[in-house]
Write a structure and sequence with these properties.
Layout (H helix, E strand, L loop, with lengths): L2 E7 L4 H10 L7 E8 L2 E8 L2 H8 L8 E7 L14 E2 L6 E8 L2 H10 L11 H14 L2 H9 L4 E8 L7 E6 L4 E4 L3 E5 L11 E4 L4 E6 L2 E6 L11 E2 L15 H7 L1 H10 L2 H13 L3 E5 L2 H17 L5 E3 H7 L7 E6 L5 H12 L3 E6 L5 H5 L2 E4 L12 H21 L4 H36 L4 E6 L3 H16 L2 E6 L15 E6 L6 H16 L4 E6 L3 H6 L2 E5 L7 H20 L17
Parallel strand pairs: 15-16, 15-17, 17-18, 18-19, 20-21, 20-22, 22-23, 23-24
Antiparallel strand pairs: 1-4, 1-10, 2-3, 2-4, 5-6, 6-7, 7-8, 8-12, 9-10, 9-11, 11-14, 12-13
Bound molecules: 5-amino-5-deoxy-1-O-phosphono-D-mannitol.
Length: 606
């Protein structure tokens, strides 16, 4: 969603502020702006476009000031226009704010405020807050009281930062339902949607919770409860992420960098707490129903987890997409709900967890972002340790989540006695050897994949097909290809094809098959049968297959041959190559790879 940032220091903070929204740009990138307290006012500059583009138009970096706010937007209310970009200010210009979230009752507030003389300049829900603060200030004559009183009128979700020349070195911020993290530096302090905004300056972060507000100055951070003003004492956490990881480091795009980082991502996922994995397996075993829940890519990750559990541990786990969870899941105190989330802030997934808690169920999560709402708000968490994922399109985080789910399934199989210790140890050897195999494939096959992507990028309609565990991989491959290329791509079980979708097949529809290894005889043969059905109807076929599969090779019009790996990790290898293929197709089509149109990294609204 939107990225918000605020900085206050003893010296000019404009460069820091500007860099902070560049680092948050993956949260939203249709417009942006910056406001600094300067000469008794808040100087605001904003416009439509990405951060660099707006800087060219508006010279954001020419502003000067020691306290300021900044925003990068993903539009929810109001079109993408200069007026709708943040910051928004009160009519007298004394209070300027940036916001992430949605104010549900903004229409009534707006008409009340208009009736009282407030001049609205935008169509956003956000602007009401600036006018509300100004109005409360008229009544209280106190900035903090005005800020708190204004917030209390709001219904919805928010993370706000506000600055005013009436308290020139201070940032006022509050959180309800949208993420907000405070960064504690030396004579400079930070507020932001996530730690990537300030990681270059400090790794000490204080995560705000819902219903709290804070007053931040260069030397002090005071957090209080909105309800009664009581002081909140919370120690900062140390963010163990390397700021360098959030830079492109010579790669043309973050997506490519993050795909190539995956050998290390795998090592980190394999190093993630064994005790945590064993505890999670125990919790799943103890639960009557253990639900897996995610949305978008993490829904497909959860589906992959479902296959691991069925096949390895003999346990069927219900999987429900987070956005449907409340309407579909039936949970009570005997159940466990386990969420999967890169950001740990996704609205739908947090809503599902809140619902599970309400019903008395235990909760758990696999999460990447340290200090995120989900990581702090569930009974049991496994931090996947993938480091910052900047590209809006998820790659390395999804792979790590699948590997962790496979580890939990293996552990469950061991605990259940379905797998003996020798088989369990063998599986772990396979996993340990995998990062090297991934490095080799990335280094040796990328050129070939690129070449093929160039040749097939002209197809506008695609099916991605897989069976068994390759079905969720096909769904994820389809999502990758569609979100980064804007092509029409549908993922589907290969066996489902003949039940209707076959009607679409002709020479213009490209079918992309994920062919399982030949060791998985039935899966392999059934997939190839579906492939033949497409060929028989004149449809072009591209396939990801393993080297010894002569039958698949004969049938495919375009084949990406992969070195043989153990069937346990074969779906992961196909996923990685599918990511690479999607990247190169998008490159050929000239797409905005790291920030595809209309998307945002972290969807914190419902
Ligand atoms: O941060 P989360 O993992 O909870 O995000 C879930 C989805 O919004 C996310 O996976 C989305 O589908 C991405 N665009 C996938 O590339």
């Amino acid at each position: 969603m939107c990225g918000i940032s605020a900085v206050t220091g003893r010296e000019d903070v404009v460069t820091i502020l500007y860099e902070s929204i560049r680092n948050l740009e993956y949260r939203g990138y249709d417009s942006c702006g910056l406001g600094v307290v300067s000469n008794g006012e808040v100087a605001v500059r904003k416009n439509t476009g990405g951060v660099e583009e707006v800087n060219k138009k508006e010279h954001l970096t020419h502003l000067r000031g020691t306290t300021g706010i900044a925003h990068t937007r993903w539009a929810t209310h109001g079109r993408v226009t200069q007026a709708n970009a943040h910051p928004h200010s009160s009519t007298d210009g004394r209070f300027s704010i940036v916001h992430n979230g949605i104010i549900n009752n903004y229409e009534e507030l707006r008409s009340d405020l208009k009736a009282q003389g407030a001049a609205f300049l935008s169509d956003t829900d956000t602007e009401v807050m600036a006018h509300l603060i100004a109005k409360s200030y008229e009544e209280t004559g106190d900035v903090e009281k005005a800020f708190v009183a204004a917030i209390k009128h709001l219904e919805g979700s928010y993370a706000f930062c506000m600055v005013t020349p009436l308290a020139p070195g201070e940032i006022y911020c509050a959180r309800l339902g949208s993420p907000l993290v405070l960064g504690a530096g030396k004579s400079v302090n930070f507020v932001a949607s996530d730690v990537n905004a300030f990681l270059q300056h400090t790794r000490d972060a204080l995560v705000m919770e819902d219903g709290e507000y804070a007053v931040v100055s260069p030397d002090a951070i005071t957090v209080r409860k909105l309800a009664d003003g009581s002081l909140v004492r919370r120690k900062p956490i140390r963010i163990e992420w390397d700021a360098e990881t959030s830079k492109k480091g010579g790669y043309a795009h973050f997506m490519l960098k993050e795909i190539f980082e995956q050998p290390q991502t795998l090592r980190n996922a394999l190093a993630a707490t064994q005790e945590g994995v064993a505890r999670m397996a125990g919790k799943i075993r103890a639960a009557r129903h253990a639900y897996l829940m995610g949305v978008g890519t993490t829904h497909y990750v959860a589906l992959a987890g479902q296959y691991f559990f069925s096949r390895l541990a003999g346990r069927h786990l219900p999987v429900v997409s987070s956005d449907e969870f409340v309407d579909l899941a039936v949970v009570d105190s005997q159940d466990l709900v386990m969420a999967v989330s890169q950001s740990g802030e996704t609205f739908d997934t947090r809503r599902g967890i809140a619902f599970a808690k309400e019903k008395g169920a235990s909760t758990a999560a696999i999460v990447n972002v340290m200090g995120s709402s989900l990581s702090m708000g569930v009974d049991e968490v496994i931090m996947q340790g993938s480091g910052p994922e900047i590209c809006v399109v998820s790659t390395k985080a999804a792979l790590a989540q699948m590997v962790i789910l496979q580890r939990i399934a293996l552990e469950s199989a061991l605990q259940e006695g379905r797998m003996d210790k020798a088989a369990y140890a063998r599986a772990h050897q396979v996993l340990q050897a995998f990062p090297e195999q991934v490095s080799a494939v990335l280094n040796e096959r990328s050129g070939f994949v690129r070449n093929l992507a160039d040749r097939t990028a002209g197809y506008h309609n695609w099916l991605v097909l897989g069976r068994g565990i390759y079905y969720p991989i096909a769904l994820e491959a389809a999502l990758k290809l569609k979100e980064v290329t804007y092509l029409h791509v549908e993922g589907m079980p290969a066996g489902f094809l003949k039940h209707g979708t076959l009607a679409l097949v002709d020479q213009n529809l490209m079918s992309w098959f994920l062919v399982p290894p030949t060791e998985e005889k039935e899966l392999n043969q059934h997939t190839i049968s579906a492939l033949e059905e497409v060929k028989a109807r004149g449809g072009p076929v591209i396939g990801l297959m393993f080297e010894d599969d002569q039958r698949a090779k004969r049938l495919l019009d375009f084949a990406i041959e992969l070195p043989k790996v153990d069937p346990l990790v074969a779906p992961f290898l196909q996923l990685i190559v599918a990511q690479l293929f999607s990247y190169f197709t998008a490159l050929k089509l000239g797409r905005s790879i790291d920030k595809p149109r209309n998307l945002a990294k972290s969807v914190t609204v419902g």
